[in-house]
Amino acid sequence: MTNDDLNQRDLSVLWHPCTQMKDHEWLPLVPIKRGHGVWLYDFDGNRYIDAISSWWVNLFGHANPRINQALKQQLDELEHVILAGFSHKPVVELSERLVEITPEPLRRCFYADNGSSAVEVALKMSYHYWKNQGKPHKRHFITLSQSYHGETLGTLGVGDVALYKETYRPLLMEAITVPSPDCFNRESGESWEEYSRRQFQHMESALERHHADTAAVIVEPLVQCAAGMRMYHPVYLELLREACDRYGVHLIADEIAVGFGRTGTMFACEQAQIAPDFLCLSKGITAGYLPLAAVLTSEEVYQAFYDDYDTLRAFLHSHSYTGNPLACRAALATLDIFKQDQIISRNRQTADAMAKAVEHLADHPHVGEIRQTGMILAMEMVKDKATREPYPWQERRGLRVYQHALTREALLRPLGNVVYFMPPYVISEEQVKHLALVAEEGINLATAD
Ligand SMILES: *Cc1c(COP(=O)(O)O)cnc(C)c1O
Predict the structure, then answer these.
(1) Cα(33)–Cα(287) distance, integer angstroms
(2) Which one of 283, 289, 422 would you pick to mutate in the ligand 1 pocket, going by the greatest count of ligand atoms within 8 A of its CB?
(3) Residue 321 CB–ligand 1 contact under 6 Å
(4) Quick one: pLDDT at residue 242?
(5) Which domains does the chain show, CATH number per domain?
(6) Distance CA 409, CA 42 (A)
(7) Mean pLDDT over residues 181-196, rounded?
């Protein structure tokens, strides 16, 4: 079988995610036969470094022997069981360990099976909490510009990436949107911290005006990934936690992309030494193996739902695959690897290697900024370096980087004009150097005219 064979069959029956299918008249799909470590292998014998962790989910490489082993064992014991009225060992163990590694006062785990659903759970729980407290008017949500929380109607409502949202706007609930602390927009000479503090004024005024009718503020801590790896300083989260407490509004931390070590700490919130009222986790939770999501919350929130059945205060939300045992087992194996291999401290070296490998590109005439938070590094291509004028999106310059990278053994998938690395943690320094070289060639090609 060749790439072509599979592509023809694919294109006659599939509809791919986040894709204008007509592109595939000239842009070949890449069918993958197997994966090993950071490598993906196609049917024609080509290989690619998975520099984007297969959409930000993979942590410890493809076909990881330890996770494979754990799953094989679990497979022979229990593949799935209903989680209402029933329970199982992997989900209990995972909940204990998530409670242990997340900040106080997060003590309760509710499960879903994908990130968007986790965000939906957090939004519903927050609203329902206030309703159970006799405050049903607290039904609004405050969100940051450029934020991304998923693709369902509820999560698009609290998101702000126009490309995904605009078409469906008539169907969506309206959120209160506050300008992002995205430090790309800081003045020259201004630090990330100063800018993030300055941008907090907008949040403070929104809370001041709307707190009485607001259930929660929802943010992606430290990095707004989908909008193009937009980064800000932890001080923003400190100020936000303090303000949410002061105004009696929940804080929802969507760590679906940034959790599990991406920002340099296990969870991004740790860098601000804060705990949210709701913590949404998914993506890396199973190291990229199986769909799973968790929402952690406090005992106080939990208790607001705990009552006699006929009071109708219970949270009657479920998904068929909630707390799937195989997925929970993969998550447990993932947490074992974090511990045994001291991943968080080892990642510091890899993050330094990433920074060094692209350092010289800061002087590139069409690189507006190189920014990094832990294991996420982004290079923003701009038309004019001085004014930071962006390339029009219609020119699809990022796509040229993607196409070039494929010819050079790398999977880079720029977000618009933003070329980024978000690799599996098992990537070597040599492989990082190769990615930097490929990215440089790609950026040169994409910005040549
Ligand atoms: C990916 C992502 C989601 C949505 O998760 P899905 O599993 O794709 O539904 C939500 N929030 C953030 C920050 C994400 O990166």
Answers:
(1) 19
(2) 283
(3) no
(4) 98
(5) 31-63+343-446 (3.90.1150.10), 69-341 (3.40.640.10)
(6) 11
(7) 97
Q: Which of 148, 262, 290 to mutate to test the pocket of ligand 1 (most atoms within 8 A of CB)?
A: 148
Helix residue ranges, H only, 110-191: 115-132, 153-157, 162-165
What does the alpha-carbon distance between residue 113 and residue 416 come to, in Å, rounded to a whole number? Answer: 28
Atom of ligand 1 nearest to the CA of 226: 15
Q: pLDDT for 47-72, tens place per residue?
A: 999 999 999 999 999 999 999 999 99
Distance set, CA 89 to CA 24, 81, 99, 322 (Å): 45, 11, 16, 14
Ramachandran sector of residue 146 (left: φ over 0; alpha: ψ -120 to 50; beta: rest)? left
220 pocket-lining for ligand 1 (C-beta < 6 Å):
yes
Q: Which two tokens stand for residue 134?
A: 């006799």
5 CA distance to ligand 1 middle (Å): 32
Phi, psi of 438 (to 5 degrees): -65, -40
Mean of pLDDT values over 16-42: 98
The response to whether residue 150 sits with its C-beta less than 6 Å from ligand 1 reads yes
- How is residue 312 written in tokens? 């109708």
Q: Comparing C-alpha atoms, which of 32, 57, 56 is closest to residue 45?
A: 32
Q: What is the pLDDT of residues 304-354, one digit of tens each?
A: 999 999 999 999 999 999 999 999 999 999 999 999 999 999 999 999 999
Instruction: Find out whether the beta carbon of 149 lies less than 6 Å from any atom of ligand 1.
Output: yes
First to last CA, the chain: 38
- Cα of 283 vs centre of ligand 1, distance in Å, is 7
For 284, the token pair is 């890396």
**Residue type for position 203:** M
Distances (CA, A) of 383 to 397, 446, 447: 11, 11, 8
Q: Whose CA is nearest to atom 8 of ligand 1?
A: 115
List of long-range contacts for 313-322, beta carbons under 8 Å, 24+ apart: 313/132, 315/110, 315/124, 315/125, 315/128, 317/121, 317/124, 318/83, 318/84, 319/111, 319/112, 319/113, 319/117, 320/113, 321/80, 321/113, 321/291, 322/83, 322/111, 322/112, 322/113
Spacing, Cα 100 to ligand 1 middle (Å): 24
